[in-house]
Amino acid sequence: MKKVTVVGAGLVGSLWSLYLAKRGYSVDVYERRPDPRKTGRAEGRSINLALSNRGWAALEKVGIAEEVKQSAIPMYRRVMHAVDGSLSFQPYGKENQAIYSVSRGGLNRLLLEAAEQQPEVRVHFAHRCVGADVETGQASFESETGTSQSDGEALFATDGAFSQVRSLMQRRDRFNYEQEYIDHGYKELHIPPAADGTHQIEREALHIWPRGQHMLIALPNPDGSFTCTLFFPMEGEESFASLRTVSEARAFFLAQFRDAIDWMPDFEAQWESNPVSSLVIIRCSPWNVGGKTLLFGDASHAIVPFYGQGMNSGFEDCRWLDESLEAFGDDLDQALPHFAEKRKPHADAIAELAMRNFVEMRDLTAQPEFLLQKKIEARFSALHPGKWIPLYSQVTFSHIPYADALAAGIRHDKIMSKIMARPDIQVNWDGEDVMEQMLELLD
Ligand SMILES: Cc1cc2nc3c(=O)[nH]c(=O)nc-3n(C[C@H](O)[C@H](O)[C@H](O)COP(=O)(O)OP(=O)(O)OC[C@H]3O[C@@H](n4cnc5c(N)ncnc54)[C@H](O)[C@@H]3O)c2cc1C
Questions:
Q1: What is the residue with the minimal CA distance to atom 31 of ligand 1?
Q2: What is the distance, to the nearest Å, from the Cα of residue 168 to the centroid of all Cα atoms in its chain?
Q3: Separation between Cα atoms, residue 414 and residue 412, nearest integer Å
Q4: Using one digit for the tens of pLDDT, what is the confidence trace for 253-281?
């Protein structure tokens, strides 16, 4: 039995520990936070997350998808809220295709429990990784009781966007590292349930208030509430910095998100107590040091949240890494470099796709032209399903590698811009000749 170490029992680290146990590894997991089941705190960024097909497939492979699904809420469509309160709708995929709202804290606890139930997994909470010899895969940890050392054959670093293990790898020759804060940050707000405990707005949907340079979104929780996230520039004329008082924030919300603020009776208290957090993109390479140390999940590829793919891509990492171990008969010296090299281009692609989707969500979803384009795409793809899978579906509802999806999306954009330039497109959008032209452009 191989003995290995996992640093970070967040979403990816706890799932990976379960994968390792199922492969027969003996696993020591070190997490800097105390056991969330004892503190009762759901720590970490964002209260809830969108889980989609890539994430589900990774959960299914270790047999826990069904359990997760019991508390997940399907979101079948986007509901767009205009400034005047009018609504428009856009289905995410074909009938019954949905992304799922799940609680970050709840999912993390469930994964941890599933990992801990395996006799081969030992989770050491309140143990902070403070050092590592990435050449040998040994790490050192500090806890209340002092310093300890891991003795596994390899180190799997899933310690998130500000990874300690990565910072040690950065000292190595020829390690590439890029960290980019985007101009926008975010603040979470809460829409409580109605008096009878039901959701105040459509439950099985992701709500968006697209406003060009900024947006508000809301995802449902099982208790009847919604968690809203305001994505807003950190600085500038209209920004977190420019809203200096809570009454300025209220005035801004009244002008921009009139319906939403009506559903938040304690807006002022929330605005004052909820922090503003920043959004970072991390790229690095190589992700591994031989077969001894490997970075994955946010530790090697943190992305912005606009495609809802950060966790999903980290879960897909677990599935791909498991396949590499399988392909190389658990020879870590071969499996780890193979995974790192094969996976990296796809992590870069989802980072780019996520930024592109920000523009789509905050700006394009408010534009009638864009909604028309989506209708044309949906019609064409229903007529020729093998020829055109909309980019959103490729990313969210398929397992097509991200870089292939990005390449197809760029091609689709070129074709759609020619179609949208047709003078008759507003009236003839579903006409046979439009569909014919799309076929020709594709060939
Ligand atoms: C606002 C927002 C919304 C998001 N929405 C979505 C979404 O809808 N869908 C989606 O798929 N993704 C979403 N994401 C992305 C998602 O949160 C991350 O991709 C995911 O949490 C990555 O998991 P991870 O396990 O790699 O890292 P993390 O979740 O950050 O876990 C890292 C763990 O390592 C521990 N750790 C850190 N340092 C040390 C140390 N030195 N020693 C020991 N332990 C350590 C931490 O305590 C933590 O438990 C969102 C992100 C944000 C910011």
A1: 10
A2: 25
A3: 5
A4: 999 999 999 999 999 999 999 999 999 99
- Measured in Å, residue 377 CA sits from the centre of ligand 1 at 34
Q: Ligand 1 pocket check: which of 33, 46, 53, 68 to mutate, most ligand atoms within 8 Å of Cβ?
A: 46
- Residue 40 pLDDT: 65
227 and 293 in a single domain? The answer is no
Task: Cite the DSSP H helix spans in 178-262.
Answer: 246-256, 258-262
Last residue of a domain, one of 251, 278, 305: 278
Provide the mean pLDDT of the chain: 95
For the cut 70, the answer to whether the pLDDT of residue 44 exceeds it is no
38-56: b (≥16 Cβ within 10 Å) or e: eeeeeeebbbbbbbbbbbb
**Residue-range definition of the domain harbouring residue 388:** 367-442
pTM across the whole model: 0.96
User: Is the sign of the CA dihedral 418, 422, 428, 431 positive or negative?
Assistant: negative
User: DSSP state, 242?
Assistant: T
Query: How many domains would you assign to the chain?
Result: 3
Distance 319 CA to ligand 1 centre (A): 17
Q: Answer yes or no: do 215 and 325 share one domain.
A: no
**In this structure, are 155 and 41 located in the same domain?**
yes
With respect to residue 293, please indicate whether it lies within any of the assigned structural domains: yes
36 and 105 in contact (C-beta within 8 Å)? yes
Asked if 166 and 256 sit in the same domain, the reply is no
Q: Is the pLDDT of residue 30 over 90?
A: yes
Q: How far is the CA of 422 from the centre of ligand 1 (A)?
A: 45
Asked whether the beta carbons of 397 and 97 are under 8 A apart, the reply is yes
Same domain, 149 and 27: yes
Residue 192, amino acid = P
- Of 357, 380, 410, the one marking the end of a domain is 357
Reply yes or no on whether the pLDDT at 45 is more than 60.
Answer: no
CATH number, residue 133: 3.50.50.60
Ligand 1: nearest atom to the Cα of 127: 43
pLDDT digits (tens, 9 = 90+) for 281-336: 999 999 999 999 999 999 999 999 999 999 999 999 999 999 999 999 999 999 99
